[in-house]
């Protein structure tokens, strides 16, 4: 029958679609997966992500395999005669208990990682990150250093009147600079609406909420420039408040810190006075 | 109408033969469950196209990096309105419409228990959506803070703000009335012998859904009222500057929002549990466990809300509790999937359009379930939260999940409702184009999210270009193939091959004992339940 043949070919196409897409993705040099990141925690998160992913893949192959086997063999056009069984307490118990065990197997490593992520003790440097519409402020607590960080992509690129640069929308005027190999505590808060501070290579994001101070930490192992974006809708320029973290060796960091402190001398209040800082800085809006 | 002198005498004998009144007033004054069901379903179809058009604006802008078509503020209005229209205007009314048509016919009741309230609960909807959609033409435009209405951002909304709040209140009132009606009908109007554990799964899932609606819609109403007073009456429920707490809004909102997710999927489970046995020609496997699994999912939906908020900075114990509770949902959901597959196992399947949609539902909803399980892992969620991975996840459960189940239901029961067979060939085309389209649309969004693309942005970094292009192509393919569906539905309403009463060889249930189309009033005397 025409319909049956149509169905069969269609079903094959449906089953193949995700795999074709995987193939297409692998050929191009695109981000397909979560980055492993540059901290011990980000690698743990990546491993957890891959663990659950593969568990899901195995279950999917089993479940869909049974289903498609049934679809191909138990069809009326092949003369199948329907069985009439319709319950079994035993199998219901089995497919309740087995998934429970698998879930426990997932929950154990997830709990371990989470506990680690929540332990921000013994940090050697604390940076307060404040979200504004639509820029970030970084204050190095007790260091007398604080500055705003604003998107540096020219408007012409966004409006398509100039060719887009390599780091289109992921570049800022003043990156947050941190030393490698040191545990850095990051306090997030916001001054107007809720934002979220996210650098994928660090393995986490944390909301920046007015009236709250959230605590996180990171210990970057490799010098480099790591880019991220605000992840919580915060108004019209939500897509235009990127984050750039520059991780440098400790000596270089100390040098940078001294420079910044020297620059800040004339106005020691800046770091702790949010309002005055906002007035000084002219943020780019569209 | 017979002559005046005889009308009274014969009214009782011929009562069920009366057709509907003619003209527009039929639809305005109707208290007939079939008419109101039709109104709900057509309204839902209209909103599906309105919300879909907004989605196409979003996808068109995201075809390439840079700003091409809309400005960022209008983009945010589109994402906000798309969600509100699709959730409250398309998916929920479609399920209520199906309940209206089907619940009385499935339990052997003459109509809904509260027919006048039924009329009211429908007719609130067009007003609510006129109000909501009119905000797009107000100075400052529509709401742009996301459908989740998070303060403080939502308080920056311009003139649209009170309109949106009032529209949400009206939708909520409509939903609550609809839910009360469904509960009253199911608990009071079942034909003698139709015990609870003999009810069709669609009726069961709707009974549970209706309780969820009554439990959480008032919570939504409360939360948006607090937003209203924060904005206009000087309160500080959610304003940190006045001693309030912006995170409290999220807790209250998601206490509504998570059961809401199940309000949009439990009736879908019911539909699929009706369709698969029909086309496998085999009774549903594990009926009782299906009922218990549905009830378990409903219960769990009340204790998992904060998994939407893993990144707000909850204490460790809170994170762990919501992570474990969320993972538990996989168990009853798994039971449902296993039962559906066992129902197919050793059946004698045919693959008409409703069955195709049901099978696609099982596969694609399960994929959405897998990504849901991944999202349940709090440490991994710190990476997934607010990215396109989440967008892909909930669209997989809502589009090839909820929406496919509604389409399956439409094809499955249209012959019963209209008395005409739909065009099978067109139905199959619609199915394949939709299924391929929806995967091209949403599958690449998993990759985008994992690679670091946040959601709700009008413009993106260059490494996200290819998958966004692919996604947009899929969106237009999916969107335009829905025109085939609308065409097929209209064509079936207007004519077509005569449908038999039973319609499907394997169909089972009271609705299939009625004529196709059923009389305007059915089961005026209760049927015998074997």
From TrEMBL, chain A:
Q: Which GO terms describe its cellular component?
A: plasma membrane
**NAD keyword on record:** no
Q: Which Gene3D superfamilies match?
A: 1.10.287.90, Cupredoxins - blue copper proteins
Provide the transmembrane region boundaries: 52-72, 93-111
Q: Name the predominant localization.
A: membrane
- Per its record, what are the GO molecular function terms? copper ion binding; cytochrome-c oxidase activity; oxidoreductase activity
Subcellular localization(s) per the UniProt record:
Cell membrane; Membrane
Q: What does this protein do?
A: Subunits I and II form the functional core of the enzyme complex. Electrons originating in cytochrome c are transferred via heme a and Cu(A) to the binuclear center formed by heme a3 and Cu(B).
**Name of the protein described by the UniProt record:** Cytochrome c oxidase subunit 2
| Organism field | Candidatus Competibacter denitrificans Run_A_D11
Which taxonomic lineage is given here?
Bacteria, Pseudomonadati, Pseudomonadota, Gammaproteobacteria, Candidatus Competibacteraceae
From TrEMBL, chain B:
* All residue ranges annotated as the Cytochrome oxidase subunit I profile domain in the record: 27-530
**Where, subcellularly, is it found?**
Cell membrane; Membrane
Enumerate the transmembrane spans. 39-60, 80-102, 122-140, 160-189, 201-228, 248-272, 284-308, 320-341, 353-374, 394-414, 426-447, 467-490
Query: Pfam families from the xrefs?
Result: COX1 (PF00115)
State the pathway, as annotated in the record.
Answer: Energy metabolism; oxidative phosphorylation
UniProt topology in membrane: Multi-pass membrane protein
Q: What does this protein do?
A: Cytochrome c oxidase is the component of the respiratory chain that catalyzes the reduction of oxygen to water. Subunits 1-3 form the functional core of the enzyme complex. CO I is the catalytic subunit of the enzyme. Electrons originating in cytochrome c are transferred via the copper A center of subunit 2 and heme A of subunit 1 to the bimetallic center formed by heme A3 and copper B.
Matches recorded under NCBIfam families: CtaD_CoxA
Q: What protein am I looking at?
A: Cytochrome c oxidase subunit 1
| Organism from which the protein derives | Candidatus Competibacter denitrificans Run_A_D11
Organism classification, top ranks?
Bacteria, Pseudomonadati, Pseudomonadota, Gammaproteobacteria, Candidatus Competibacteraceae
Recorded name of the encoding gene? ctaD
